[in-house]
Amino acid sequence: QVQLVESGGGLVQAGASLRLSCAASGRTFSQNAMGWFRRAPGKEREFVAAISWRGSSTYYADSVKGRFTISRDNAKNMMYLQMNSLKPEDTAVYCCAARYYSGASYSPSGDDYAYWGQGTQVTVSS
Questions:
Q1: 43 to each of 34, 67, 92, 99, how far by Cα in Å?
Q2: Is 33 in contact with 100 (CB distance < 8 Å)?
Q3: Across residues 27-38, what is the average pLDDT?
Q4: Could you tell me which residues are beta bridge partners of residue 98?
Q5: CB of 51 within 8 A of CB of 57?
Q6: Buried-state track 89-118, b at ≥16 Cβ within 10 A, e below 16
Q7: Which pLDDT belongs to residue 68?
Q8: Which helix (H) or strand (E) holds 60?
Q9: CB atoms near residue 30 (< 10 Å)
Q10: N or C: which end of the chain has fewer CB within 10 A?
Q11: What is the pLDDT of residues 6-17, one digit of tens each?
């Protein structure tokens, strides 16, 4: 059974940092592009960041560029999201996702991802 499990969320003040982790099990995603998405209350799912299967290419939403860093450790089947200078508008449930086909390019569209985690809550107070 394929599973993606996020961790690392929490309640922090504006300006703080958090590091989210995504642990994959059930299959290896070392050759699959992966990404982070978020959903705030009352809003649609929003792309945050994506990373190629090698980890050599990354792509960010304009709203997080320069503050968030996506990375991965294929040996551990893990992906990370380092979030710095957090703002109240970053408050959301953050989900990790993986593409189904090996070698597929990273994408900002959630429709291109086949596997999803349940999410971890990030709350940033002002």
A1: 22, 21, 9, 23
A2: no
A3: 92
A4: 34, 115
A5: yes
A6: ebbbbbbbbbbeeeebebbeebebbebebe
A7: 98
A8: strand 58-60
A9: 16
A10: N
A11: 999 999 999 999
